[in-house]
């Protein structure tokens, strides 16, 4: 399916920063005008930074905007001791140019041609590829049942809250759980994702959903294991991990 | 192209000459990457098989595998997602030992196959002559499931996706067949010093 499209050589392209917005205390959404050709929801790009003495650093980021979008968007979480993310969040300005290469990865992808139920499960900034999938689902007018379970430490750290509310309003099951905070006025869920929460909020094994899990390693490891224990087929569970 | 405002700060370390292009030193971390859930095959149901074409040619149970001569390996590893980790300590059985039990004069390529359905392909030249092992300990302890335990392939001179987790056997072929990531846009060989990350690099 996507193999042929991925056989072409991936070259570095200049992307111009169109928008640079703080989403949460720790996460920024950065929009680029760049010609990387068509991408699939769930794919990622490599970013390459070059210092004046020629030193280079590269990192991978999931694409957070739909294939139909006018800009290629990344959600960058600022890592205190990071080398690349603090540059992207603190130094980068509108109209700056960065080298980007991609799209990369042909497995952790959702396409509107996939008609079956689809369960998205995100931890923290692992939400990024799902923003692309959800927007793609809307832009393509997909009838595929889609649900999102999103675990965030606090309410302030919920990324793209307004966009998620829009998706909820059009019939996507959007469940957000807060793991470090239960504040007055919060009508979502509270606590870490566990078996009972998965049972209550996600498609059952009998519905044979395709499941995407993205987040920190420990989160992904636990959720994938719980899903297998619920009876989901391992080959229906696709995982992507962020950071160590 | 110089990136306005970027200085970078990780060069100059003691290990700089050991970092392939585009990589960074992850330090004490050991990130985990996989495409699906971690399999948990009980050791009494684990075996390791060598196939020539589609015919089984050699097989070891877990107990038999433990009795094979193990080597200690200290190597740097390089993940295509950009992190490198220096001086990782493993022990395992050389592929020379395993393949020596199943002579296949026509073989030129190897496919590693794994619990969970993962595969990766290697030219025999990258899998032999002391360059590859099936390892079952990391840092002196049994290899943990999320890092590929009970046993994984270790091919440290290539990007780490070639070091297949949860390995259950090797298939010897006279022709090359791309594995899982190799059919999904990643480079067929994956030499980090040539920065062969993606198809066409």
Description:
Chain A is α/β, with parallel strands linked by helices and 244 residues long. Chain A has helices at 3-6, 85-91, 128-139, 161-169, 195-201, 217-229; strands spanning 13-22, 27-33, 44-50, 56-62, 72-77, 97-104, 118-123, 146-152, 173-178, 189-190, 210-216, 237-242. Chain A is globular and about 55 Å long. Chain B is built from 3 helices and 11 strands, in the order βββαββαββαββββ. Chain B has helices at 62-67, 95-100, 124-127, and strands spanning 24-25, 47-52, 55-61, 71-78, 83-94, 109-114, 119-123, 133-138, 141-142, 152-154, 167-173. Classes of the chains: A alpha/beta (244), B mainly beta (201).
Summary tags:
heterodimer, A: 244 residues, six-stranded parallel beta sheet, 32% strand, globular, disordered N terminus, B: 201 residues, six-stranded mixed beta sheet
Q: Profile the largest sheet of chain A.
A: 6 strands, antiparallel
Which spans of chain A have pLDDT < 50 for at least 5 consecutive residues?
Answer: 1-6
* Proportion of beta-strand residues of chain B: 25-35%
Number of strands of chain A: 12
Distance between the termini of chain B: 19 Å
Strands of the widest sheet of chain A, in order across it, are 4-3-6-1-2-5
Q: What is the overall number of helices of chain A? A: 6
Give the CA-CA distance, first to last residue of chain A. Answer: 31 Å
How many strand units of chain B? 11
| Global Rg of chain A | 18 Å
Brief account:
The complex is a heterodimer of chains A (244) and B (201). Chain A has 244 residues and is an alpha/beta fold. Chain A contains six helices and twelve strands.
Helix-strand blueprint:
The complex is a heterodimer of chains A (244) and B (201).
Chain A: H1 3-6, E1 13-22, E2 27-33, E3 44-50, E4 56-62, E5 72-77, H2 85-91, E6 97-104, E7 118-123, H3 128-139, E8 146-152, H4 161-169, E9 173-178, E10 189-190, H5 195-201, E11 210-216, H6 217-229, E12 237-242
Parallel strand pairs in A: 7-8, 7-11, 8-9, 9-10, 11-12
Antiparallel strand pairs in A: 1-2, 1-6, 2-5, 3-4, 3-6
Chain B: E1 24-25, E2 47-52, E3 55-61, H1 62-67, E4 71-78, E5 83-94, H2 95-100, E6 109-114, E7 119-123, H3 124-127, E8 133-138, E9 141-142, E10 152-154, E11 167-173
Parallel strand pairs in B: 1-5, 2-11
Antiparallel strand pairs in B: 2-3, 4-5, 5-8, 6-7, 6-11, 8-9, 8-10
């Amino acid at each position: 399916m996507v193999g042929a499209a991925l056989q072409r050589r991936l070259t570095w392209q200049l992307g111009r920063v169109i928008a640079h917005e703080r989403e949460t205390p720790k996460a920024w959404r950065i929009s680029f005008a760049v010609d990387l050709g068509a991408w699939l929801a769930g794919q990622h790009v490599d970013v390459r930074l070059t210092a004046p003495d020629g030193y280079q650093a590269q990192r991978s980021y999931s694409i957070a905007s739909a294939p139909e979008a006018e800009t290629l968007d990344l959600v960058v979480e600022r890592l205190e001791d990071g080398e690349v993310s603090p540059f992207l969040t603190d130094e980068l300005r509108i109209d700056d140019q960065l080298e980007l290469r991609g799209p990369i990865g042909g497995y952790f992808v959702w396409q509107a041609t996939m008609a079956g139920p689809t369960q998205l499960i995100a931890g923290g900034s692992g939400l990024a590829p799902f923003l692309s999938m959800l927007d793609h689902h809307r832009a393509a007018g997909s009838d595929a049942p889609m649900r999102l379970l999103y675990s965030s430490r606090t309410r302030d750290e919920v990324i793209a809250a307004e966009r998620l509310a829009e998706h909820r309003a059009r019939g996507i099951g959007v469940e957000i759980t807060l793991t470090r905070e239960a504040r007055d006025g919060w009508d979502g869920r509270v606590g870490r994702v566990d078996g009972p929460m998965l049972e209550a909020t996600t498609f059952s094994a009998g519905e044979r959903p395709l499941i995407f899990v993205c987040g920190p390693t420990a989160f992904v490891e636990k959720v994938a294991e719980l899903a297998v224990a619920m009876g989901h087929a391992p080959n229906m569970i696709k995982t992507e991990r962020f950071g160590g | 192209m110089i990136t306005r405002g970027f200085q970078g700060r990780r060069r100059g370390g003691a290990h700089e000459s050991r970092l392939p292009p585009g990589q960074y030193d992850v330090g004490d971390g050991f990130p985990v990457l996989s495409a699906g859930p971690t399999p948990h095959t009980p050791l009494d149901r684990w075996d390791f098989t060598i196939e020539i074409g589609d015919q089984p040619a050699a097989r070891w149970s877990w107990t038999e595998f433990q009795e094979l001569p193990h080597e200690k390996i200290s190597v740097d590893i390089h993940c295509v997602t950009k992190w490198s980790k220096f001086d990782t300590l493993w022990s395992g059985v050389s592929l020379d030992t395993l393949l020596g039990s199943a002579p296949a004069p026509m073989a030129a390529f190897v496919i590693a196959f794994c619990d969970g359905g993962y595969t990766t392909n290697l030219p025999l030249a990258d899998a032999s002559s002391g360059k590859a092992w099936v390892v079952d300990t990391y840092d002196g302890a049994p290899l943990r499931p999320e890092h590929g335990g009970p046993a994984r392939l270790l091919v440290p001179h290539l990007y780490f996706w070639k070091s297949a987790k949860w390995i259950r056997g090797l298939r010897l072929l006279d022709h090359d067949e791309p594995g899982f990531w190799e059919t999904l846009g990643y480079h067929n060989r994956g030499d980090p010093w040539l920065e062969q990350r993606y198809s066409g690099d």
